[in-house]
Amino acid sequence: MLLVEQFPVLIVTTGVFAGYTILIAGLVNRKSCAYIFLSVVFSHLIMSLFILHHVLTVGTIHYWLGGWRPPWGIEYVVDALNAYILVIVLFLSLMAGLYAKRYEEHKLEERKHVTYFTLFQLLVAGLCGVVVTGDVFNMYVLSEIVALTAYALIASPGGRTLKASYNYLVMGSVGICFYLLGIGFLYSVTGTLNMADMRILLPPLYQNRLVFVAYALILVGFSIKMALIPLHTWLPDAHAFAPSEISAMLSGIIIEVYTYAFIRISFSVFTVDFLRLLPIFDIISWIAAIAIIYGSVLAIAQINLKRMLAYSSVSQMGYIMLGVGLSISTRSALWGGLTPALMHILNHALMKGCLFLVAGAFIYKFNAWNITDLRGLGRKMPWTCGAFVLAAISMIGVPPSVGFVTKVYLIFAFVEAGNFIFMAILLLSALLNLVYFWRVIEILYMRPGGEEGHSEHHAEHAAPGKSEEIPLFMLIPVVTLASLCMIMGIVWLTEIPIVGAIPILDNVNKLFGLGAYTP
Amino acid sequence: MNPESTGYKRDVIIQTTAKLMVPFILVFGLYVMMGSEGTGGGFQGGCILAAAYILYVTAFGTEKGRVMMPESWNTFFTSLGLYLYDGAGLVAIILSLAAAQFLNYSAIWPLANILGIAEARGYMVAFVVDVGIGITVMAAFVSQFFDLAWKEKEEEKGE
Fold first, then answer.
1. Taking CB atoms and an 8 Å limit, are A10 and B93 in contact across chains?
2. Where do runs of H (alpha helix) occur along B8-120?
3. Which residues of chain B have a CB within 8 Å of the CB of A1?
4. Residue by residue, what is the 3-state secondary structure of A388-415?
5. Is the pLDDT of residue B2 over 60?
6. Residue B7 pLDDT more than 80?
7. Hey, are the CB atoms on A67 and B106 less than 8 Å from each other?
8. CB B101 to CB A16 under 8 A?
9. A325 near A288, Cβ under 8 Å?
10. Considering CB atoms only, which of B82, B89, B104 is closest to A20?
C-alpha cells in the first residue's frame, strides 16, 4: 500500500487529533494555537495536492478502514471530484486561518482564543471528512461535525450572532434530518450504506416509490444546507454576523461542500439513468435561475456590506446549481456535464473568500459595517481596496477573471441546451452584480474623505500620513485570493485550446458518464 | 467547605449519603465501561462516572468540586480520551509503517506475536477505545455541568 493512499484518512484523523492538541496547547501558551492550526492545515494542503496528483495519474483511491471489505466496513473513496474539492477546502481554510490569527486577537475575548482554533480545526477536519468519505452514513456523521462546529464559530463573538447561529442551528438540523431520513429509506430497500454498493443494488428498484421519496428527501435536506431558494433563510444573518473569516469559509466552501455532497449522491449513488426518469434536474435549473435573480435583487437592497455579500452568495449558489441542473443535458467535451458547476465552486471560493475577508478588514480597522461608512477608504487602504476591486470585477464577470470564465461556459451550455431564457437571466444577473458592486467601488474611491464618518471611532488611526493598511498576516490571504481570481481565470481560459478540456473536470465527467462521455 | 460562602445550607444526610455512594458509582461506571465479557459501553460508563462527580458537587458545592477537578484537568481529560481512541486507529498505521489501514490490526499480527499480546489483541483495542470514549464523555459532561452551575452562582451573587 502506497503512503499517498493513507493520506485521505490521515487528513481526517490527524485533523481531529490536532484539534484536541490545540485545546491542550492552549493551557500552556495561548499564542501557539494559531501556529499549530496553520502548520497542520498547511501540511494537509500538501497532502491533498499529492492525493490530487495520484488520483489524476494513477487512479481512484479506495481505502478500506480496518481492512474490512466495503459492504461491511467503511470505505473512503477519493476520485478526481473529491480530490479537487479537498484541495479547495484546505486552501481556503489556510487562507482563513492566516487571516483569523490577527483578526481574532483584535476582535475576540482572550479566553475564547483556544476554543476558537480548536473548533476551527475540527471544522476543517469535518469538511475534509465529508469530502473523502464513500459511505452515506459516515457522510451524515461528518456533516454533523461540520454543522456543530460552524454553529459555535458563528456564535463566537456573542450578542446578535447568537440569534443568527440559533436560526442556522434549527434550519441545519432540519436539513440534516431530511438527509438522514432519505438514507434511512435507501437502507431499508437496499440494506447497505456504502455508496458504490448502493449504486449496484439500486437500478432494479428505480420504479420503487420509496426510492423517489428518498431522493426527494435528500434533495430537500441538502437544499437547506446549501441555501437554495426558498430554503436560504438562515444564510443572510449567519453570513453577516459571523466572524469574517468564518463568513468566508461558510460562503466560500461550507455551502459548496454540501453541493458536492448532493452531486456525489446524485451521480455516485443514483445514476444519470435515474435522474432522467423524472424532470428533477429541470426543476433544479429553474429554481437556480430564480435564485440568481432573487439573490442579486435583494443584494442591491442591502446597506450592510456583509449582508449584501451574503445575498450575493445566494445568487452565486444559483450559478452552481444551474450548472448542475444542466449537466445531464449537455454533451460537449468542453462545457458539457459538470464542468461549469465544478469550475464555479473553485471560482466562488476565491471571489467570495476574498470579498468577505476584505469586508472583515473594514470592520477590523474602522468598525465599518455599512456601505456608507466606507467613504474614501480606497486611498487609506490601497492594497485591501485593490483586492476588493479585483474580486468585485470577477463577480461582475470582466475578462479574464474567473467570474467571466464561468459565465462563458454557462452561456455555451445554455446555447447547447437551447434555453435562451437562462441566457437572458445570466446577463441580467451580470448587470445586477455590476449595480451592487459598483455602488461599493464608487463609495470606496470616488466619495471625498469621509473623515466625519469614522474618525470618532478611531481617532488614533486618522492621523495624516499614517498607513492604515491592515496587518501583513491579514493582507497576505486577501491579496493572494484576489490575485488568484485573475490568475485562475487565465489558467482556465488558456487551457481551452491546449488540452481540449480541463483534465480534472474531464475526469469527473468521465467518471459519471456525463458531457462527452454520455453513452 | 464553608456553607455561608455559597449561601446554601448543606445537609448532613445528603453529604454522608454522597460520600458513601460516590465510590460505588465510580466502580459501577468502570464496570459498565469495561464490560464483564468482551466490550462494554464507553458512553454509558462515562455518563455514570460523570454522575458520580455531579452527585459529589451537588452535596458539597461547586467550589469544593472545582478544587477536586480543576478546569485544566478537565481539558486534559477531554483530549486524553480522544488521543486514546484516535491513537488506537493511528497506531496500526504507525506500527506497520503505513502498510496497513487505519484500525487494521491483522496486518501487525507478527509484531503482536513477538510482544506476546496476540490473543488479547482485539480485546485490548476495544478496551482502549471504550476507555477513551468514557473519559471524553465524562469530561464533556462535567464541563457542561460546570458551565451551567457557575453561571447560576454568579447570577445569585448579582442579586
1. yes
2. 12-34, 42-60, 62-68, 71-95, 109-115
3. 98-101
4. HHHHHHHHHCCCCCHHHHHHHHHHHHHH
5. no
6. no
7. yes
8. no
9. yes
10. B82
B101 with A9: Cβ contact below 8 A: yes
Question: B75 and A23: CB-CB below 8 Å?
Answer: yes
pTM, whole model, 2 decimals?
A: 0.91
B75 touches chain A (CB under 8 A): yes
Domain boundaries, chain A: 279-450+468-519
CA A411, A416, A421, A422 dihedral sign is: negative
Indicate if the pLDDT at residue B36 is higher than 80.
no
Neighbours of A111 (CB within 10 A): 10
The complex's ipTM works out to 0.84
Q: How many residues does chain A have?
A: 519
Taking 50 as the pLDDT cut, the residues of chain A under it are: 452-453, 455-456, 459-465, 497-501
Contacts of A14 in chain B (CB under 8 A): 90
Peptide bond connecting A230 to the previous residue in cis, omega within 30 degrees of 0: yes
| B82 close contact with A: CB closer than 8 A | yes
The dihedral region occupied by A103, where left means phi > 0, alpha psi between -120 and 50, and beta the remainder, is: alpha
Range list of β-strands (E), A39-113? 61-64, 75-78
pLDDT at A498: 42
d(CA A25, CA A15): 15
> What grid cell was written down for B105?
490490526
Residue of higher predicted confidence among A165 and B3: A165
- Nearest partner of A409 among A296, A82, A397, A421, judged by Cα: A397
Q: Do the chains contact at A1 and B75, CB–CB below 8 Å?
A: no
Set of cell numbers at residue A58: 494513477
**For residue A75, what are the β-bridge partners?**
A64
Residue of A nearest to B72 (CA): A27
Question: What pLDDT was estimated at residue B120?
Answer: 62
Residue B155: pLDDT band (50, 70, 90) is low
Q: How far apart are the two ends of chain A, measured CA to CA in Å?
A: 34
- How many angstroms separate the CA of residue B17 from the nearest CA in chain A? 35
Question: What tens digit of pLDDT does each residue of A362-402 get?
Answer: 988 888 888 888 888 888 888 899 999 999 999 988 888 88
* Interface membership of B86 toward A (CB under 8 Å): yes
| Residues of A within an 8 Å Cβ radius of B | 1, 3, 6, 9-10, 13-14, 16-17, 20-21, 23-24, 26-27, 63-67
